[in-house]
Amino acid sequence: MSEPLREDRAHALSIPRLVVDTNLFVGLLFRPESPGPRGIWEAVLSGRARLVLSPPVLRELRATFRRLPVESARKREILDRLEDPSLVECREAVEDSGFRCADPEDDKFLHLALAADADALVTSDRALLAVEGFPVPILKSGQWLRRHGREQE
């Protein structure tokens, strides 16, 4: 393997991979100045983090965006970025991890985080934050930014 390819691969492996709950994107739409959602989004757009999505997560995000009274252009901008393979990895097949939270609708985030071997599940959802014994750190956006996001700026 040539040296530049090795460096590219090493860099790609060092980029944290995040599963992000829908509530972060809702926060980004309604409060774009909010440091947590904005910080995570900027980390992804700048290549300091990479999102991991699955079809069920994308379906929930699109359905949620359709219901929100926010200008369509802003929603489209975010959704378009979520289709960019340089920013996002999509896991087509995600098995049931066996982990559950108080809200069954949020289990898909647990399953995805484990299947993708994510570095963190970023959320402000109480049901997800209350899950104990999960092998992937479940963090609020500010926690992740303090641990990872700002160290590289």
Written overview of the protein:
- The structure is a single chain.
- By secondary structure, the chain is an alpha/beta fold.
- The protein has a single domain (15-145), classed as Rossmann fold (3-Layer(aba) Sandwich).
- Helix content is 50%, strand content 10%.
- It is built from eight helices and five strands, in the order H-E-H-H-E-H-H-E-H-E-H-E-H.
- The chain has helices spanning 3-14, 22-30, 35-45, 55-67, 72-81, 107-115, 126-129, 141-149, and strands spanning 17-20, 50-53, 88-90, 120-122, 138-139.
- It has a five-stranded parallel β-sheet with strand order 3-2-1-4-5, sandwiched between helices.
- Strand 4 (120-122), helix 7 (126-129) and strand 5 form a beta-alpha-beta unit.
- The longest helix is centred in the middle third of the chain and has 13 residues, at 55-67.
- The model is unreliable at 1-11 (pLDDT under 50).
Element layout with pairings:
Layout: H1 3-14, E1 17-20, H2 22-30, H3 35-45, E2 50-53, H4 55-67, H5 72-81, E3 88-90, H6 107-115, E4 120-122, H7 126-129, E5 138-139, H8 141-149
Parallel strand pairs: 1-2, 1-4, 2-3, 4-5
How do you describe this structure in short?
The protein has 153 residues and is an alpha/beta fold.
Detail the poorly predicted runs. 1-11
CATH C-level class is Alpha Beta
CATH topology, which one? Rossmann fold
Indicate the percent of residues in helices: 40-55%
Q: How many DSSP H or I helices?
A: 8
> How many structural domains are formed by the residues?
1
Number of strands: 5
> Which CATH architecture?
3-Layer(aba) Sandwich
Mean pLDDT: 88
Shape: globular
How far the N terminus sits from the C terminus, by CA atoms, comes to 30 Å
The spatial strand order of the largest sheet comes to 3-2-1-4-5
Question: Strand share of the residues?
Answer: 5-15%
Class from secondary-structure proportions:
alpha/beta
The biggest sheet amounts to: 5 strands, parallel
What Rg is obtained from the alpha carbons, in whole angstroms?
A: 15 Å
- Give the oligomeric state: single chain
What is the helix/strand order?
A: HEHHEHHEHEHEH
**Name of the CATH superfamily:** 5'-nuclease
